[in-house]
Amino acid sequence: MTDDSGKKPSGKPPQGEGSGDAGENDRPTVNPPFDVEAFARAAGGSRFPRDAPTRPPPNLQGSPGEEGRGQQVTLTNEAELEKARALSARNSERPRPITSSALSIADDRAKSSGTIPPVADATAPASIEAAVLGALVSQPAPEITERTIDDPLAEMRERFSLGDYTGALEMSELILADEPGNLEAAECGENCRTVLEGMFAAKLGALSRVPMVVVPRTQMRWLSIDHRAGFVLSLVDGSSSVDMILDVCGMPKLDALRILHELVQRKIVAFR
Amino acid sequence: MTVEKVIGIDLGTTNSCVAIVEGGTPTVIPNRGGYKTTPSMVAVTEAGKRLVGHIAKRQAITNAEYTVSAAKRLIGRKWTSPQVKNAVSTSSYKIVEGPHADVRIALRDKEYSVPEIGAMVLQEMKVIAEDYLGEPVSKAVVTVPAYFNDNQRQATKDAGEIAGLDVIRIINEPTAAALSYGYGKNAEKTIAVYDFGGGTFDISILEIGSSGVFKVIATAGDTFLGGEDVDARIIDWLVQGFKDEHQIDLRQDRMALQRLKDAAEKAKCELSSVRETEVNLPFIISSGRNEALHLQRSIDRKTLEDLSGDLIERTVDICRQTLADAHLEKDDVEEILLVGGMTRMPKIQQAVADFFEREPSKGVHPDESVALGAGIQGAALIDDKQEMVLLDVTPHALGIMTQGGYFEELIPQNTTVPTHRTKIFTTSRDNQTAVKIVVMQGESERAEENELLGEFILTGLRRAAKGTVEIEVTFEINADGIVSVHAKDLETGKEQSIDVTASSGLTRDEIKNMMEGAKDFMVERRSTEEFEAAKQEAERIVGEIERLFPQVEQIVAASDFGRDAIDKARAIVAKARAAIAKRDVAAVKAEIEGLSRTHRMFKGVVAKTH
Question: In sequence order, what DSSP letters do the residues of A152-205 get, joined into one string?
Fold first, then answer.
């Protein structure tokens, strides 16, 4: 759901919202044609709190005037979420306590939301999104904030409950890298993928549709996309459907959907 | 009563093609993408989805472990054969030993027999033909290389059976090419068929007789030499150029390699008609410094010829050797047919012309001639009026092993069947009371170089000096191709025999199970296609209705009646969505009518107010 008033919901940072919105306003806010919260709950199973999505996180409280609008808090636009997360990380004044067992992470999205190069490890599921978003948003690079999370599982659950499925997926992968047998992380990761795939697929429309490249071939090389997006773009031949491209791209479905969605958003690719 | 059509299938190593005779004209049937050939590739995706043809080829490198190509090199071969050993070490997919010392291919969580993989390609060709003809097809003529032995031919037949096709005849590829060449021309001559395809090279010398026998006088080739080797040379050239410029090895990235493979093949094809072409692959790889690098390079025909010169020379060497082995002179060859996509390359045409000292015939289509020939033979088999009927011949000589490991031929290659031949043999040792009859197939004088078909022992021979006990050995091939071998002690009348039936390595039960699996797959595929078509149509109309909703809502805002119509329209859209979500094809189809009505109504409302 989006905020009817056009304002950012309670995820809005207390300062510096103006500059950050410029790029975002150019992008359409398209809600998927289903209730994402319900979808997430259905996909999420019993491990994740059912009432949490409507409750703003403690450090992102909205203004008093926004109280009682719990149903409008959850962001469903991936790009908005990413920006909110980046701003949240940047404006975080109170770092979490560090403990000896803490799992330290750097917020990749914060890094890539400016002109910072895409992360070197292009195989990480979130890196394409980071790279594409980085190319999309022409704003000054935010300060890279490193924070330490002492309870990654709780962080993962919290992100999931907030509807930040990309963030939750990232957390689940970090946990699984450390502890491959963690069933909760595996399940959450799988659920996040399912939700995100559903979201991107819904945004793209029928997967039987045939995308085609609309940027003239001569201008292609001036686009700001990475090689994985370039690979997906090379599969857009005007006769293959989205389904076929997903079959042949050889990358995780979520990554491919995300890239295709971004290519469509950036008007590099369009449907017939 | 309409006669059922028989399709002709060229089941190639890299590409397959299907043809039919329509109104007396042989025609190649294009696939759904409009291509006349379909890659003989099968893949299973991570999600367990089966891909066949072009779609499998497009992901062949990014999903290399689970994409099968060139399965034809393995069909009908035993696990212990050198070709299988070679394939095990060079294939990107996993080849394992089957339960009957046959070959299996592991894809994801299942092991497939080679005929099963072949069946997937044949099934695709069957679907292409059925879509084109609008009726089911169940009979086919399938081509195989001239050097295929009975087991390989049987395995190809089994593949057809698994695919739901009754393979009424197996014919040699060069024979099929010659048929398409000689169709209606009443040719009677000696020809050479130079077949340079995507994965293999074959040269065959054929004698076309007026009696309907196309005799394969000599055949040779290289099963690991084809257009893909030329592609590999172009890829090497591009990779090296990129490395020199950027110090990055594109081979390290599968996505880059997949694009390079496609681009190399495209450039190779283009250079057959133009002198220079450009390979342009933007965003091919990450530089690691926040930028994607582009590959842009021109390649000309001369460069391609330099890159592939030795490969072309290899084919000429094989031609030279084949003529020598068959004791033929270049002058004995009256016509040269070029078959296979690679023969479009001007340099190859020139090399063939230079070697045979004669311009090759371009009267046959390099990609289509084999399938067309198979289609012609298929039509001839069901049409009594057709004069041209090929006779079944033995593809290889049949005989037994004799002392010293030699091969004694009883039935020569190219003998028309049914046939029988008898020969008298004697014992080779003093007081020998038993003889082992080892039945073999092949042309080599050395028994070990031929294919073992079976063996049996004849006992109870009279004790006598060597060379005095006579044993009569009879080979008989019936109309179904079953070989019977009898050995008889002429003195005592004791007899022993064996029936040799070609085997693909699969049991009847296995074939039956695989057929069931293939049928189930087709039912599921057809049902999925039906659902997808209905879903696509429903989603299209839903999209149109949703686009009109705001306008219609605005127009009818003031009236209760209008509000009611909007609600009903929303309910129809919701019902259609629910049917799609449930993947209920009947329900989706049923909703399309309501959606169309709503759409028409909305369009009418908008049109009237503008």
Answer: HHHHHHHHHHTT-HHHHHHHHHHHHHH-TT-HHHHHHHHHHHHHHHHHHHHHH-
Interface touch A248/B58, C-beta < 8 Å: yes
- Minimal Cβ distance to B283: which of A229, A235, A247: A229
B385 given a catalytic annotation: no
Amino acid (one-letter) located at A118:
P
- Which residues of chain A neighbour B542 with C-beta distances below 8 Å? none
Contact B442, B417 (CB under 8 A): no
Look at the domain B227-308 and name its fold. Actin; Chain A, domain 4 (3.90.640)
Q: Does a structural domain hold residue A194?
A: yes
Give the active site residue among B116, B124, B161, B173: B173
Domain co-membership, A137 together with A195:
yes
**Interval B76-98: pLDDT, tens:** 999 998 889 989 988 999 999 99
Question: Which among B226, B270, B315, B269 is positioned nearest to B40, based on CA atoms?
Answer: B226
Of the candidates B33, B58, B255, the beta carbon closest to that of A228 is on B255
- Residue numbers of B between 562 and 581 with CB closer than 8 Å to A: 577
Question: To the nearest 5 percent, what fractions of chain B are helix, strand and coil?
Answer: 40, 25, 30
CA distance B43 to chain A (A): 10
Q: How far is CA B45 from the centre of its chain?
A: 21
* B398-500 placed in CATH 3.30.1490.100: no
Q: Which residues of chain B have pLDDT under 70?
A: 1-2, 183-187, 211-212, 384-392, 480, 558-561, 610
Q: Is the pLDDT of residue A93 over 50?
A: no
CB contact (8 A) between residue A117 and residue B289: yes
Q: Which residues of B touch A118 (CB under 8 A)?
A: 286, 290
DSSP assignment, residue B101? S
What pLDDT score does A120 carry?
A: 37
More confident residue, A19 or A34: A34
Q: Is the residue at A177 inside a domain?
A: yes
> Which residues in chain A have their CB less than 8 angstroms from residue B39's CB?
none
Picking from B136, B130, B108, the residue whose alpha carbon sits closest to that of residue B51 is B108
Distance CA A222, CA A217 (A): 10
Chain A to chain B Cβ contacts (< 8 Å): 80
CB contact under 8 A, A231 and B33: no
More confidently predicted of B453 and A24: B453
pTM, rounded to two decimals: 0.74
**Does residue A91 surpass a pLDDT of 80?**
no
What are the chain B neighbours of A205 within 8 Å (beta carbons)? 539, 543
Domain count, chain A: 2
| pLDDT value at residue A48 | 42
pLDDT band at A244 (very low <50, low <70, confident <90, very high): very high
Closest residue in A to B289 (Cα) is A117
Contacts 24+ apart (CB under 8 A), B129-134: B129/B7, B129/B18, B129/B20, B129/B29, B131/B32, B132/B29, B132/B30, B133/B5, B133/B20
Give the per-residue pLDDT at B610. 67
What pLDDT score does B386 carry?
A: 61
CATH code of B6-226+312-382, in short, is 3.30.420.40
* B109 included as an active-site residue: no
ipTM summary value: 0.75
